[in-house]
Amino acid sequence: MPPTMKAAVYHGARDIRIEIVPVPTRGKGEALVRVLRSGICGTDASEWSVGPRTFPVERRHPISGHLGPIIPGHEFVGEIVAADPESDLVVGALVASGAGVWCGHCRRCNAGRPNQCVSYKTLGLNVNGGMAEYVAVPSMTLRQLPHGMSVDHAGLAQPLAVGIHAARRSGARNGDRVVVVGAGAIGSFVLAGLKHLFEVDVTVIDFPGDRLARATRLGADRTVSQSATIGADLTAAFGGAKPDVVIEASGAPGQLASALQMVTGGGRVLAVGIPKEQAALDIHSLVFREITLETTLAHVCDTDLPAALEVLAGGTVGNEFAEAPVGLDHLTSSLDRLAAGAVAGKILIDPGI
Known about the structure:
Blueprint lengths: L3 E9 L2 E8 L7 E10 L2 H9 L24 E8 L11 E4 L2 E2 L5 H4 L10 E2 L11 E5 L3 E3 L6 H4 L2 H13 L7 E5 L3 H13 L3 E6 L3 H8 L4 E4 L4 H8 L7 E4 L6 H8 L5 E4 L11 H6 L3 E4 L5 H13 L2 H6 L9 H9 L8 E2 L4
Parallel strand pairs: 10-11, 10-13, 11-12, 13-14, 14-15
Antiparallel strand pairs: 1-2, 3-4, 3-8, 3-16, 4-5, 5-9, 6-7
């Protein structure tokens, strides 16, 4: 009998089953990883509540070829138990996974944008992922943890890398005034990325409460409470000036349009949050004020994942976000919490308990 493991298997909306399945076999260029922590994010909660939308349960994924029930989990960290002999990683190494898999030779990969690879696929979204005791992972996505790093903190590496990539995509430069709209997890990770990469003045906007207090602890130079007069409030805070860069990280209705209004002429706006409804934008103002509107998706493993581990080595982000891990049997209740907006940090699953 082949070895088996415990895994969470997604069959459809509100249908995740803890099953005993075969341990995956390591393929060429892959390592077999024992999962120590696996995080859940908004995509997982959406798939749980109203999916499948991204998970290829009903329609075959054009790149991975997966069709049918799938093991989710694209934010994970673990220990290598069977190494890829062509990599520098060895058995026993603790690693974080970037989850996204790229080809390395298409035009986008050669241009340094592997997250736009024509063959891009993501573990846990398009093919079986890390919400299980073991996962087979392409070695190209793995980065070894700094010595002594908490695996709880390391479990935040992939989503933090997404925030760092967004910070790069914002086009912020040293000396800029930057505004981040939204102090949830992704907005906070963008804030951490900005402070790691640049010497910038960062203002964070959200409703009064714990999120803004946390933003201050993460390095925000100031926080401003969301209001109907937010544009004027910001101008007053900046002594009559407007921000050079505005990053919309909330996805709340109307906030992208508001970001375009509050940025200075010739400035930049980055769309991170994805609103549920089609956004109405003032194209006339966008053009005549020569505003640059950018978007961001996922991360670049070779640059953003190592940067995320550097940030996490400092301890502050991990202390603020990493919840105490729970077992796979708590996964569905945790997804309910996340879908209801009742999670302040990041939920971590330990498939071994």
